[in-house]
Structure formats: structure tokens, C-alpha cells
Specification:
four-stranded antiparallel beta sheet, 7 helices, 21% strand, alpha+beta, binds zinc ion
């Protein structure tokens, strides 16, 4: 099997079940409709996993971009307040920019620290495995027509989960939990 990212021979192999999620907006609010997709096999090579691990542990790439963006937004907010006065709607817009910038900054940094802490708690091999999974999620398709795609790994960890945890972990609606659970368990047994 080839690496889904660079086509080299894969070192980490994953069998996953696709979940299609459609967000339906109506007067009653947002609603989620989900359907199970196909089983797919993906691979990730060791060098792609190592690169992903390095990117995730360092404050770089996307995170730097978000950080830069939030600083620009905060500066714009300050400029609006300084140049146009703090009264009325304009003052409100300035404050809105500053607050928005701070929230983006906070979100980016706290998520990075959380993921970093999770990864550092694992042994090196486990950490690399987790990074390979993150790389797979990044390189696998995220959309199918109008639906968002997400993936559930078919492995021992998944079949050993409690059904409630399984539902929360993969953000499944109650209507498809049973079906997802049974096809994954059946497929897992088939693979062995
Ligand atoms: Zn690769």
C-alpha cells in the first residue's frame, strides 16, 4: 500500500469507515443528518508521520498564520479606536475587532498546548502512530458533494470502546450509532 500523501511505501496502514454528515439549516435551527459511507484503506509512510509530528509539536505553519492574523485584527481594532474615537458604532466595531483577535489567538494557542500535552504523554512509537493518523485525516478527502466526511478507524481500540464513548468520540447522531457499531465490529472480525 502507498502513502496517501507522498506515494512512498506506507508504514502505517488504516482501515476506516467513512461517515457523511450533512448540515441542514432550517427555522428550527441547525440539524445534522448522517449516513455511513464505504470502508476505505489508507496508508501513511514514516517520513510523513515524522513531519506531521514535528509540525504538531512546534508552533509553526497554520498556527503561525492564525497568530499573525489575530495580531493584524487586534491592531486594526486599535487603529479604529484611536483614529475614529470610541463613540457609538465605530467604537463598538473597534472593540469587536480587538475581542475577535484575542479569541482567535487564545483558541489557536490553547488548542496547540492541549494537543502537545496529549502527544507528549505517549511513548515515541505511539506518538508517531498518532501523528500518522493526524496526517491521514489531513490528506483524506474532507467533502463529498455537500456532505462533510469524517473517518472512524476500524481497529482494536475502536471495537473495545464503550458505545457511549464511541458516539461522542466520532460525533455520531443516535440514529446511526447502532449501525456504525455493528458494521465496524463485523468488518473488524472479517479482517482477522
Ligand atoms: Zn508519505
Amino acid at each position: 500500500m502507498k502513502c496517501s500523501n507522498c506515494q512512498k511505501e506506507a508504514d502505517f496502514r488504516y482501515r476506516v469507515l467513512e461517515v457523511q454528515t450533512l448540515h441542514v439549516r432550517s427555522l428550527k435551527g441547525d440539524n445534522k443528518v448522517q449516513a455511513l459511507g464505504k470502508f476505505q484503506d489508507y496508508g501513511i509512510c514514516r517520513s510523513c508521520a515524522e513531519r506531521r509530528l514535528k509540525d504538531t509539536l512546534e508552533f509553526s505553519g497554520e498556527k503561525k498564520k492564525h497568530c499573525f492574523l489575530s495580531i493584524v485584527i487586534i491592531i486594526m481594532g486599535c487603529l479604529i479606536l484611536l483614529n475614529m474615537g470610541s463613540e457609538g458604532l465605530i467604537g463598538f466595531t473597534g472593540l469587536f475587532f480587538i475581542l475577535g483577535g484575542i479569541l482567535i489567538e487564545y483558541g489557536t494557542v490553547s488548542e496547540w498546548l492541549r494537543t502537545r500535552k496529549e502527544l507528549m504523554a505517549l511513548s515515541f512509537e505511539k506518538r508517531l502512530e498518532r501523528a500518522a493518523w493526524l496526517e491521514l485525516l489531513a490528506s483524506a478527502p474532507k467533502k463529498s458533494v455537500d456532505s462533510d466526511l469524517s473517518y472512524i478507524p476500524v481497529d482494536r481500540e475502536t471495537v473495545n470502546m464503550k458505545k457511549g464513548d464511541f458516539m461522542v468520540m466520532y460525533d455520531l447522531i443516535p440514529e446511526i450509532v447502532e449501525k456504525a457499531w455493528s458494521v465496524i465490529n463485523a468488518d473488524y472480525l472479517n479482517q482477522r
